[in-house]
Specification:
Blueprint lengths: L1 E4 L2 E3 L14 E3 L2 E4 L6 E2 L8 H14 L1
Antiparallel strand pairs: 1-4, 2-3, 4-5
Length: about 60
C-alpha cells in the first residue's frame, strides 16, 4: 500500500499576516510505500527546499 503524507501551511486572509501572503498555501508531499518490512519513502529525491524550488521555477520559466 502507498500512502501520502502531506503537511501544509495555509495563510488565511486576515490582518495578522502580510497581504502578499493572503490565501497562499504550500504542501510538501511524500509518497510512502508501506509493506510488511520497513516503509520506503518513494519521493525521497523530490525537491523540498525553497532554494531548489526557486532554481527549478527559474529554469522552467527560461524554457518558455
Amino acid at each position: 500500500m502507498v500512502i501520502t503524507i502531506e503537511p501544509g501551511i495555509y495563510v488565511p486572509p486576515v490582518p495578522q499576516f502580510p497581504k502578499q501572503y493572503h490565501s497562499m498555501g504550500i504542501r510538501i508531499e511524500d509518497e510512502v510505500l508501506v509493506s510488511e518490512k520497513d516503509p520506503v519513502v518513494l519521493t525521497m529525491a523530490a525537491p523540498k527546499e525553497v532554494r531548489l524550488f526557486t532554481f527549478l521555477i527559474n529554469y522552467l520559466l527560461r524554457l518558455e
